[in-house]
Structure formats: structure tokens, C-alpha cells
């Protein structure tokens, strides 16, 4: 972060740390069927920079990242689906998860599953 975070941004950071940990735990226990990240506390939209900071600084998978951001956006009136896709051949297989409306990167991913907004 280039400038010091304000209190809402710090609160968003705290929420994001807990949300990533819980998402990881639920994915291990029950897979995609049970994953639901708790809504963030009532925070202004600009506090999303704290969420982004945590997701860049803390190790997380693309699916964990997508689940956390899905919960954030839903709480701020912009529900989005999560898209899970694959790219490559059997020797260079890659899978990726992203939010609907985001570009999945440079690879040409074929959509396998879409998790509806929660």
C-alpha cells in the first residue's frame, strides 16, 4: 500500500485474512458444495484495497481468492458468479477460478463450472 490504510481498510484486511482461512478449511472439508464465505462487516467500498492487499500478500489459491472477492462484491450490491475453467493439453493442464466479468489471464480457459452468486 502506498499510503497508510484508514480504519475501514484495516477492518477489511482483518476480515479477508479470516475469510481466506475459512474458505481454505471449508474447501478441504466439503469441497465446492459447502463453501460460503461470511459477509464482510459493513464497510465502505474503498476498503476493498485492504482485501486486495491481503489476497496479494498472503498465499491463497485462485479459488480462495474468488470466494473472498465474491462475498465482498455481494455485500456491496454487485453479486458475481465464480467461473472455473481449464486450459491446455493433458501434458500442460491448467485450471483457474475467477469472478465473472474478470479476465482469467492470458490462457484461453474453457469454462467447466459456474458457481452462482451467493
* Lateral arrangement of strands in the main beta sheet: 2-1-3
Number of helices: 3
Helix content: 40-55%
pLDDT averaged residue by residue? 90
- Largest sheet descriptor: 3 strands, antiparallel
Number of E strands: 3
What structural class should be given to the helix and strand makeup?
A: alpha+beta
Series of H and E elements: HHHEEE
Molecular shape: globular
Taking all Cα atoms into account, the compactness measure Rg is 15 Å
**What's the end-to-end separation, in Å?**
29 Å
**How many structural domains are formed by the residues?**
1
Spans with pLDDT under 50 lasting ≥5 residues?
Answer: none
| Amount of beta strand | 15-25%
Q: Regarding quaternary structure, how should these chains be classified?
A: single chain
Write the layout of secondary structure elements.
Elements: H1 7-30, H2 48-57, H3 62-75, E1 82-87, E2 94-99, E3 110-115
Antiparallel strand pairs: 1-2, 1-3
Helix pairs in contact: 1-2, 1-3
Concise summary:
The protein has 118 residues and is of the alpha+beta class.
3D architecture notes:
This protein is of the alpha+beta class and 118 residues long. Helix content is 41%, strand content 15%. Helix 1 packs across helix 2 and helix 1 packs across helix 3. The chain has one domain (7-115). The mean pLDDT is 90. Strand 1 (82-87) and strand 2 form a beta hairpin. It is globular. The chain is built from three helices and three strands, in the order H-H-H-E-E-E.
Amino acid at each position: 500500500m502506498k499510503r497508510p490504510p484508514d480504519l475501514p481498510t484495516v477492518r477489511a484486511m482483518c476480515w479477508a485474512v479470516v475469510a481466506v482461512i475459512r474458505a481454505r478449511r471449508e474447501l478441504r472439508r466439503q469441497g465446492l458444495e459447502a463453501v460460503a464465505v461470511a459477509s464482510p462487516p459493513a464497510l465502505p467500498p474503498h476498503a476493498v484495497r485492504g482485501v486486495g492487499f491481503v489476497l496479494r500478500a498472503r498465499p491463497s489459491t485462485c479459488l480462495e481468492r474468488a470466494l473472498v472477492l465474491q462475498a465482498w462484491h455481494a455485500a456491496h450490491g454487485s453479486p458475481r458468479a465464480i467461473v472455473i475453467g481449464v486450459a491446455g493439453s493433458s501434458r500442460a493442464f491448467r485450471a483457474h477460478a475467477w469472478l465473472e466479468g474478470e479476465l482469467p489471464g492470458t490462457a484461453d480457459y474453457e469454462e467447466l463450472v459456474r458457481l452462482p452468486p451467493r
